[in-house]
Amino acid sequence: MLDSVTSLALTSALDGLALRQRTIANNIANINTPDYHAKVVSFENALAKSVADGNGVSAATTERSLDPTLLNGNNVNLDTETLANIDALLRYQFAAKAVEGPVSSIRAAMKTA
C-alpha cells in the first residue's frame, strides 16, 4: 500500500502534470497571437523538497517562458510544446498507474472475500 507521503506526492504530481498539459494546450492555441508569451509549469523541485521534508504536498507554479520571441513578439515553439506534451502525458500515465495499483489490489481482495 502507499503511505500517506507517497499518496500525497502522487496526487500533487498528477495535479502539476494536469496543469502542465492545460498550459501547453493554451500555449499551442495562442501560437499565432502577437505578443503572446508561452507559459511553463514547474513543480518537480518543490515536490522533491516536500517529499524530503516528509510532507508530499506541493503546488505547481506557472511562469512566463523566457524563450526568445519571433518578430510578432510571440515565443511559442510548436516543436517544444509538442515534446513537452508527450512528456507530460507519459509522466501522467505513469503516476496514474502508480495510484491505480494499490486500489486494484484492494478491489481484487474485496472480490475474493
TrEMBL record:
Its main location: other. Belongs to the flagella basal body rod proteins family. The basal body constitutes a major portion of the flagellar organelle and consists of a number of rings mounted on a central rod. InterPro entries: Flag_bb_rod_N (IPR001444), Flagellar_basal_body_rod_CS (IPR019776), FlgB (IPR006300). Residues 10-36 form the Flagellar basal body rod protein N-terminal domain. Structural component of flagellum, the bacterial motility apparatus. Part of the rod structure of flagellar basal body. Signal peptide: none annotated. One of its GO terms (cellular component) is bacterial-type flagellum basal body, rod. It comes from Cryobacterium luteum. It is found in: Bacterial flagellum basal body. This is Flagellar basal body rod protein FlgB. One of its GO terms (biological process) is bacterial-type flagellum-dependent cell motility. Keywords: Bacterial flagellum, Cell projection, Cilium, Flagellum.
